[in-house]
Queue: 2 jobs
Job 1
Amino acid sequence: MSSLTKTLILAATLVTVSVQAADIKVGVAEALSGGAAQYGVPIRNGFQLAADEINAKGGINGNKIQLVIEDEQGKKEEAINVFKKLIFQDKVLMIFGPTLSNSMFAAGPVANASKTVAFGTSNTANGITDIGPYIFRNSVMESDVLPITVATAVKHYHIKKVAVMYGNDDAFTKSGYDVFKKVLADQNIPVTTTETYVKGDVDFKAQLTKIKAGNPDAIICSALAEEAANIMLQARSLGIKAPFIGGNGFNSPKLFEISKQAGDGTFVGSPWSNDNPSSANVNFVNAYKKKYNAEPNQFAAQGYDALYIAAAALKTVKLSGNLEADRQALRDALPKVTINGATGAFKFRPAVTKDGKPGGFDADQKPFIYILQNSKFNLFTGKN
Amino acid sequence: MEWLANFWATYSTLIYSIGVYALVALSIWLTLACGLLSLANAAFMGIGAYVSALLSLQAGWPFWAVLVAAGLAPAGVALIIGIPTLRLSGVYLAMATLAFGEVVRIIILNLEITGGPEGLNGIPQSTRGWHIVAILGLAVYGLARMRRSRTGRAFEAIREDEVAASLMGIDVKRHKLFAFVLGAVLAGVAGGLNAHATFFISPREYGFENAVDILTMVVFGGIGGLVGPMVGAGILTLLPELLRFLHEFRGIFNGLVLILVVLFLPKGIWEPRRIRALFGLGPKEG
């Protein structure tokens, strides 16, 4: 224990020394190991890329951004520990992350109670911004994307009735289903049958046979990419011709890598488009490919944009060196930010909380609608 | 003194976790002390966590009453499933309790009131450090007294030889059930404390992975006494945090430490005889 205490004292002194430098310390708490690392790593890459760009251009009002990156493993206790370390020990100005909505539910209240901004870039669950006024996110909620996806597909295919299929043991696919259910009720589209599966299932024929019997015009599917691709393949082998409509889980190249042509005609909405021709996005895509030698994805784009949003807010803030005052000033400056980033035009929208208390801020952004054609996501323009 | 305040602010959750997991480790030690390899304690912890969280959120019970319920609810469940399953022993009991754990997880996953896979959030943060210290202290004191009592000696007799124990007039079934139920109480209270310290609970925290983690803590620490399980819980909770400087490699290092301990200290880290022998005190091992 004594060596632990010594290390901690040492760490504490190091922190006090580095605070005096003119760096702006920003915490990044993402899942860099474990199952959620597939999202956390691209997010971190997005942040690093944005920080390098901003610092290369001279930083913010002359101050460099210093990212303090920590792994929260996608676990709630770890997320709390990391948040506390960043807030109390590293004394960061604000925190980006954590990766999963569940972790935000656990760690968000810690940041909110210590009046420090927690900025999620990948938390799509409902109620995240109910935690309190210091919680921000630029991740577009499914409840903003799916109504547009469904309406576009319904118009394109003249859909009269649909079947629904979802994974009922996963927070992500289940909450996606809840949104679909509400959207279908709002848009008066009858559901022939609702089928479920659990994580790890590989055979979906029983459910698909029931779906086939209802003869739907489309199949709404709240699933992760691997499962969705298998569902598509098996649906085609059973002779189901109806197109699929999916949520955020479909946004992975795995979808068409596995499903090949079976997924063609699928509609999906996404907050980011690889092919978006805006200069901000082209710059981002090229810089990302150059730095990491890999294709960027939606999560990287949202992380990248998030740092630019914070930078825009920081530009308007005069840093006093008093940590509490600076954190508050940043919190007050953030909601006014509007930028044109890799994910398109962005602004914040105050959250409407369940109990009427002041909440945080959600993303106010228009999603891109894609259609899957010849095993490729193409931006849907109405002419495809 | 500022660094102390900082230290506490940063690491209080971690220290809470150590206390909570020490309590869970003691709960599984209790069943092991009676020769039962039960993997149900993660599920009992989950029942305690969910019952307490729901009573706090929906019924607005005071925290002490919530904690009592967190202990009693899994005890009731343990009583019901204990009677048939405790007729099994060894691997068969492990399998049955494992299956029970999965059943609990799937029930929680599919109920409306538990929030399904999305879990429960916004649980009031009522757990204070002294709650954990007091409950852990009480548990250690109670268990230490029990070990010296007729019941404790009966547990030991059952663990060493069930037939001999029953021939000596020990009611084997009843003692096993008692150990099982008491273990459920400890795990349930730990679950209640955990739920009210982390704002949020979800079914995946109380599944198979957690059951194995808890068992690992006890085996790692040593099952010879009360200190071993608590040491194991402490080290295994602290280790990932202490290894943070290793970044991507800490998972590997964590596993390495586990393997080394199992290889070279098969009776766990806390083995008083070995420690005494190390300092040249007490009887040498022959």
Job 2
Amino acid sequence: MSMADATPHSTVPAAVRLTDIHKSFGLVQANRGATLEVARGEIHALVGENGAGKSTLMRVLSGMYTADSGRMEVNGRDVTGWTTADAIDAGVGMVHQHFMLVPTLTVAENVMLGRELTKHGQLDVARAERDVEALSRTTGLAVRPDARVADLSVGEAQRVEILKTLYRGARILILDEPTAVLSPPEIDELWQVLRQMRARGETIVLITHKLDEVMEISDSITVMRHGRTITHMRTADTTPGDIARAMVGRDVQLAKDHVAEERAATPHATDALLDVHDLVVTDARRLTAVDGVSFSIMAGEIFGIAGVEGNGQTELLEALAGLRAARGGTVHIGNAEATDFSVKERGHAGLSHIPEDRHLRGLILDYSVAENLILGQQDRFSRGAQLDHDRIMQNARTQIAEYDIRPADPLLPARALSGGNQQKIVIAREMGRSFQVLLAAQPTRGVDVGAIEFIHARLRRARDAGKAILLVSADLAEILALSDRIAVMYEGKFAAVLPRSEASEEVLGPYMTGAAAEHAA
Amino acid sequence: MIVLLFLAQTLRIAIPYLFAASGGVISERAGLIGLGLEGYMLGGAFCGAVASYYTGNAWLGLLGAVVGGVLLALLYAVTSIRFRGDQVVIGIAINLFASGATRFFLRLLFHSSANSPRIPGFGVEQTGTGWLAIARNPLIWIGILAVAFMAWLLYRTPFGLRVRAVGEHPAAAMSVGIRVARVRYLAVALSGALAALGGAYLAFDQHQFTAEMSAGRGFIALAATIFGRWDPVRAALACLLFAAAETLQIQLQGAQVIPSQFVEMIPYALTIVALAGVVGRAVPPAALGKVEGL
Amino acid sequence: MTIHATEITPAPPSAAPAVNRASRRAELEEAFLPAIVALLIAALVGDVLILSFGQNPGTVYKLLIEGTWGNAYGLGQVLYKATTLTFTGLAVAVGLRAGLFNIGAESQLAAGGFVAALVGLALPASVPTLLALPIFIVAAAIGGGVVGGVPGVLKAKFGAHEVITTIMLNFIVLALLNYLVAAHLKAADSLHTATIHTGALPRLSNYIGPFHGSAANVVILLAVAVVIATWYYLFRTRGGFELRATGLQPEAAEYGGVNVGGVWWRAMALSGALAGIGGLNFVLGYKYYYEDSFGSGAGFLGIAVAIVGRNHPVGVALAALVFATISQGGLAVNAAVPKQMVDVLQAVVIIAVVASVPEVRRVLRRER
């Protein structure tokens, strides 16, 4: 191992040194004085909550964005303000969270894009394919070079992304949330590849907010919060609790710590308010995404669905909400057979829905807060064909006060509010109406800690009022903190359904990875 | 003999479509809607006629046509790429601009609101419509070569690979250091040059420029681009199909079998059918019409 | 590069009332600055064209104003043209509010006029105008609405892009109407139908003498009413709420219980109907027959009118007056410079507005 004899405090310059980086988009300051130092040959975790500015900082490093101010050094060289092409030439490569692959091109074409191999002025596809094959062999990243990227699985696509950067001679590799879309075996493979790269002396920056990953793979850690660098530490000298504290800026009870204090009561009724039987749903590519799922949720119960994202949770929720047609199975809301109900009819039957992506579905960003507070209930706020302006405003003032939405101006466009306050609009709208069943998808994604506690309290209150709640969250701690029963979704099926008392991260983990699927009844 | 004459006339009618549709393919594959093809054709025809008239040389006239088409295309490119204006609106405005400007300068330069004086061109005097006439017109050969060239450029060269990437997933192209805007400028300029050659063909065939002489051919070329599913060879086949329908209508004119208006509708109706997916859906490049954020 | 949504939290702290007032001022600035910039650029291009023709720009612009707003006849012609443009502009604006680009106003206008003329030929002369008028409005709305609705249905059912289908339908419908008139309906030695029997509407000159000779007629009052009705529909009704929601964020509208495909085809049909009613201006108010290609570009210009009017009904009416003035002004200056100059100027206005909107927005945001 070539780096074995390097002393920790050698005079070798750092692979990356970013100093006091500022970067704004319009009024939003994504980075305000971010600093990062990465030693050569290490795996460096860049952690922080959603919106902490990690991705922006790394896009600045990879030349995709130009910083407003600050200094950038790579291997001791001042590279401030460089372009993507410069970064690639200097051996800095980035694997983005949303893949930067052209789906209509082949693997080999994607790999050589921007660095095309030519023979007599023409593309030399054959040689590119041979090169990709060779690189696949040496790195263990197996893909068919002539396959169209659109036909690859997510894991394969990520391999192509990594191959792409290595093909360009990357010695410093940045990975943005690489495990969000991977299955557990794919994650293990990725760790192996990264460790091999480290052994070859290459440098890796890993953006993540998953602390178990940080502890498992990284050598050192930089924590960001609100666009600033908070601290830098050696992984060996720290604990997940320390990292979490640095991430959120104060002592947090990690959500799982306060389960016990909540909830003594059991669900009060035996009536199922939501009953799903053998539901089959296909995704946009017409592949089966939900594969025969059955469950019931009682009044006064929170039913949590855990699992790695992309295992059918989105399609399940969309089918329940009436946004995607079911291929098979039945759905009952209360006593109503609701399988073929439209979105509106489901609303009338007592269904409320906090959608997983508030910027896509939950809000119309250019509509005012008041208008957003009636979205989906526009029928109720009309007289004949006409909107009832007075009642819309009155409703807005009530909800703004009740849910503490700031600023308290019903006419402001939703776009102008912070993420947490935007989510409060959605929560207020969906929980402020009369409903029996609530679908809550990622209810606290991208909101600050204060808002998380507020939203959790609201969900508990609704449960105590006898509502049936389906909670889907990528955050296992959130599932454990709120749910009465927990299902683990894996490849479109429930790998397990457990009462809260039997569930823990240790128990659920293997089901999420598919390793324990066969034990599910 | 009848068949040969039919084919010859089809080819003659198809040539301006082939040029403009080749331009449409490269522009749309790079992500820029080809609504301005009509304007580039008209502008190209006029500039070609002016250059040919003043130099007395049809080849220099061609050069003039290319310059005119490229300038219009760059006006479209700059306003839609640099200034991020809406491509649909600007494309339509380019056509209005070309229509107004050519007629304005027609009056300024030639004191006529209808047509230019006689210019050097490539058209054979109105005697034969057979193969001889075709063989003597270099623009026919250039038009056929343009299709082959476009197919080669798009699928066999680094530039073509970049065009395909830029029109499908510009952010991916940018992330590997490709200058997306530059690729797009080049593709649009090329589309302007090609469509202008199609326009020049019209003017040089008749040895004069006539007001509004593109007469909707740019839109037929756009229809061929879509009907050919953004592939140079398939688009060329669509051009030939549309041209054959027109030829048939001309040949049958005396017979009054089908009213000419219905033949006129064929390209447009087929394009709608293709878009509605009745026979296999036409899926446009993913980033077509979107330039925001780059 | 789009910034991933979750990466831009936290949003800036905002003091409510101040932001609110400032954001409304910014809205107004954003609405008017591009139009002003565009007119300045157009004037500059106009100068160059006029000078190239050896004329004095000042003189020509004076002619333009005198020939339009400077005398009652010119003003009447401006009002007549603005009436049609208001309808086609509203048509495009309603489509855009629903997120759809209706390029087909040209053929929808023609179809509306055509169907109205057919009805006018079928109705007996004894039917009083007041009774005939609603029938004509419905007929024109159906004519335009069907032509507009087809691309809407194709979009909702098959996802066929409405820009292309409306363009293609323009050619198809105009060819069809041309065939019907030329082969079956034309009066001798013309490309128009016979004169309708009833429903002819009075010219404004019947009430205001100086308008004499101009085509301005009482359809302009209908235009004003339709502007108000469109505004009311878009901003005060549930249907308008759902239509605009669909235009801004179709996924969110769908989540909010809106049948997005239904909004698409209804919005396109409504858009076509608005353009179709515009055909009455020619058929009922001016010539009293349908004439092939009477629209002569008013449908396409409707796109410019909607864009410059920022898709707001009142803005559309104002923009229609601007474009009608330029258009009529071309005839007024034709003796000095070719009237085609105004086509160039209109194109310049369109391009400059469209290209300066994002730029103006950026500059304004940076200042703040």
